[in-house]
Structure formats: C-alpha cells, structure tokens
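Q: My hope is that you can spare some time for a protein that puzzles me. Underneath my words sits a plain record pairing an amino acid chain with its backbone structure tokens. Those tokens are not coordinates but codes from a learned vocabulary of shapes. Thank you; the sequence and its tokens follow:
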Amino acid sequence: MSDKQTLLEQIRADIIANDTCPDLAKTATNLVMGDGNVDADIVFIGEAPGKNEDEQGLPFIGAAGKFLDSMLEGAGITRSEVYITNIVKYRPPNNRDPLPEEKQTFWPYLVRQLDVIAPKIVVTLGRHSMEYFLPGQKISLIHGQPKRIRFGQSRIVVVPLYHPAAALYNGSMRTVLNEDFIKLPKIIKILEKEEEKK
C-alpha cells in the first residue's frame, strides 16, 4: 500500500470514528470514499453517492458514471488515470440533494483527500460541488473554464463542469459536456508548461 493510500484509508477511518453525519450513515449501506489513481492529475468531485454507488461502495458507477466514462474516453483519458469522489460520502435518502450542513460536515475530509492526492486540476461535477470551491458563481457562465483559487495553504485550479446526470436526458447539454471534457488534457498541458517556466 502506498503512503497516499494509507493516508486516504486514515481519512475513511476518521469519518467512521467521528460518527460523521450519523443520520445519513444510518440510512446508507456503504461509506463511499472515492476511487481511482491516488497519483492522479485530475480529481473529479460530484455531490453525493446514488443508489448503485451506495450498494457497491464506489462513486459514479450508475448511468451517470457510464456516461462519465464515455466522456473521459472522448478526451483520451482512462478512468484508471483519474480519481473520483463526492463531497458527501453517504447516500442521502431517496437520492435527495445533500443539505448544506451535510456538505459542510464532510468538507474537511474532502480537503484532506485533495491534500493527499495533490492533483493538477480539480473538476467539479454539478453546481453542488462547484459552489464550495467557487461560491456565488453560475455554472452556465463558467463551465469548462479553469479558475485558480486559494485553497487552504495552496492554490489550486478548479474546472467546473455540468453533472453527467444533467446531460443524460439533454442532448445539447451532452455536446457542451463533451466539449468541456476535451479541454481537460489541454488545461493540464498549459499548467505543466507554466510549472516548467518557474
């Protein structure tokens, strides 16, 4: 097990030990921490697990997850190269939106996950996760645009995207999302060039 893996396991253990969000924990089957490459350049952050995710303990494995996979493929990225997680780690009952206080309770653990993985870019999926990084912004105006923000002790690049679930039933949204996904490898190349110049 790599050091990063060990640190991520510790975050999971802390969520359980601290009895985080006990009301959600009671109705959920699994704690859904995240999945993927712990050395990823890109971390995707959704809002909360759904039914399939709760049953299997993995993020983005239902219909929206399959759509996410196909968009990654379109951008020349494999799922094994990225890390995927949610702000809220337990499924809210009946797939309702996570409440502000639930997001707030899980936020410190997400911050720790990002500190451990240290990705080049953080991609928020949907407005719930975007609002935490870019409060007061409208996703319709800034989707697909990299934003540099102060985050804890460091600066990170956040790219807000629409949630794949929103595009499942909306053809024009699907096109927009595909176009935004294709930009991700280009954004990383630009950031790598900036790093080289430093």
